[in-house]
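Good morning N.,

You mentioned wanting to compare the apo and holo forms, so I went ahead and generated the holo version with copper (II) ion. This is what I fed in:
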Amino acid sequence: MKRVLGLIAVAPFVLSACTSDGEQAVDVVPTPTTRCLPPDCVEIVIDGLDYAFNPPTITTRAGAARVVLRNLGQKVHNLKVQGGAVEARTLNLAPGATGFLDVTLEARRYDIFCTITGHAERGMRGVLTVTP
Ligand SMILES: [Cu+2]
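and this is what came out, ligand included:
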């Protein structure tokens, strides 16, 4: 006789990440549901350090872009792109985490910076220059 097993419901939820960083909670970063592939999309990889972006200045062309931020620091960081119609930022990334931001860039200059209090002032800022 076949034993009928009860289904064990395993909810695919993720526990909110606890943070040892007192100043800013981290976010759970979802996996991108779309791919960023050339020539339709340019991927821009930036490392976040305590307290700098590497590279701090980037030049790319107009169009769809995915900004990938790798947090290589010991603190929580994010990256905001601001300029023209664009004002968007990554989630707050735990140390070691990688986040992304999909944006449509026009030919102009954008400021990039970490929005966590004091980080831009300490050096987490840069410039994204977009050419036609
Ligand atoms: Cu930061």
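Residues 71 and 96 are 5 Å apart (CA to CA).

Happy to go through it together on a call whenever suits you.

Best,
F.
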